[in-house]
Write a structure and sequence with these properties.
single chain; alpha/beta; TIM Barrel; three-stranded parallel sheet; 15 helices; binds ligand V47; binds iron/sulfur cluster
Length: 369
């Protein structure tokens, strides 16, 4: 008896399972069916088979740290626990000199990637951020700079009176090598207007990533889930990403972001269960057959669930982080001072039965353990 037969799946699910195991693409309707099924073991098995096609038995991590230049933001996303107005208690605004000092401190610890993301500042335009990138690159010529969400890029280019393409060209010349996946939230226009009314719209987010891909700047993609959306909304989001990836091939990784409720306007809502989180990883891995990597961002879900997610298609635990990000600790995530040593990440991966691989930002393997 095959493993699939032993799972005693109902007929429609069995059909989807056979498709996935044969390496074929599933439809949006089939993805909704997977979300609606409660057979977590079958989902884990199928997601694992897709994961192995992309990354065999490797699970990746990298040595990175975050710079959050400011939490002052012109937008008012209702799920955000982090944004402040200028001058408000708890607001910060780092100078380029302060950020270069952070780079210096972290490089000594062996970081290979600098991740730069912050609020959408009212006065800092694309020229300020190009100066920042030049200063970081000068201090860390060997480190990869992954910086700025599409939402930040959109606003900094508008302020600098440049098109996105002109702005990205300026940033690329200054040292930008790839872009993170933030700001995608949920693409459904009605929901987006409700939860983040003044943010770059869905078409704009996708267009900026398409432009970056065309210019040879790879990017990541995210989805904020667990906040008002239903399974059709999630599948619509994943479909728009899969469609763009078919055209450009520029996405490296997809990162589901679980809504965390502390200190924001949705604090009275319930957060998703661990079962839902694992199901979400699995369906994303199965549906997004053309995005090579699925990342569990452990500062957001905690290390224990991140380790469990490896059985549901995740092949990347992101990085060492070194207590350099506040966005999730301010929203109530388990990890209040997120930091992981190489030994800890290697242990998490190995005890789950996978082969730990330190990667660079572009998923070249630097070391195996
Ligand atoms: O766009 C903000 C999310 C994102 C909350 O590309 C929240 O490698 C849940 O995109 N609950 C920014 N989510 C972070 C991000 C990211 C993180 C790590 C790695 C990468 C990558 C990208 O954080 C925002 C928004 O979707 N977010 N507040 C909250 N309360
Ligand atoms: Fe600003 Fe980002 Fe917070 Fe939205 S999620 S308010 S864009 S910092």
């Amino acid at each position: 008896m095959s493993i699939l037969e032993s799972l005693t799946l109902p007929a429609p699910l069995k059909e989807i399972a056979l498709k996935v195991l044969a390496g074929n693409r599933i439809s949006p309707e089939e993805a909704v069916e997977l979300y609606e099924s409660n057979n977590l073991s079958a989902l884990g098995l199928l997601a694992g088979s897709v994961k192995r096609r992309h990354s065999r038995d490797y699970v990746y991590f990298n040595k990175n740290f975050h710079i959050e230049p400011t939490n002052i933001c012109i937008n008012h996303c209702k799920f955000c626990s982090y944004r402040r107005n200028p001058g408000q208690k708890g607001a910060w605004e780092c100078s380029i000199e302060e950020m270069v000092e952070m780079v210096e401190r972290n490089l000594l610890k062996g970081a290979t990637e600098v991740h730069i993301v912050g609020g959408v500042h009212p006065d800092r335009d694309v020229r300020f951020y190009a100066d920042l990138l030049r200063a970081v690159r000068e201090k860390a010529p060997g480190a990869h700079i992954k910086a700025f969400t599409a939402v930040e890029i959109d606003q900094m280019c508008k302020m600098g009176n440049l098109t996105v393409e002109e702005g990205l060209r300026m940033l690329k010349e200054a040292g930008l090598e790839s872009m993170p996946g933030g700001g995608a939230e949920i693409f459904d226009e009605t929901l987006r207007a409700e939860i983040c009314p003044d943010k770059t719209d869905s078409a704009g987010w996708l267009q900026i990533h398409a432009t970056a891909h065309r210019m040879g700047i790879p990017t990541n993609a995210t989805m904020l889930y667990g906040l008002k959306e239903n399974y059709h909304h999630r599948v619509d989001h994943l479909s728009r990403l899969r469609h763009l990836q078919d055209q450009t091939g520029g996405f490296n990784a997809f990162i589901p972001l679980k809504f965390r409720k502390a200190n924001n306007l949705y604090s009275s809502r319930k957060e998703t269960t661990v079962v839902e989180d694992l199901k979400n990883y699995a369906v994303a891995r199965i549906f997004l057959d053309n995005i090579p990597h699925l990342k569990a961002y452990w500062p957001m879900i905690g290390k224990q669930v991140a380790q469990l997610s490896l059985f549901f298609g995740v092949d990347d635990l992101d990085g060492t982080i070194d207590d350099s990000t506040r966005i999730y600790s301010m929203a109530g995530a388990e990890e209040q001072n997120p930091s992981a040593s190489t030994a800890e990440l290697v242990e998490m991966i190995r005890t789950a039965g996978f082969r730990p691989a330190e990667r660079d930002t572009l998923y070249n393997i630097l070391a195996t353990f």
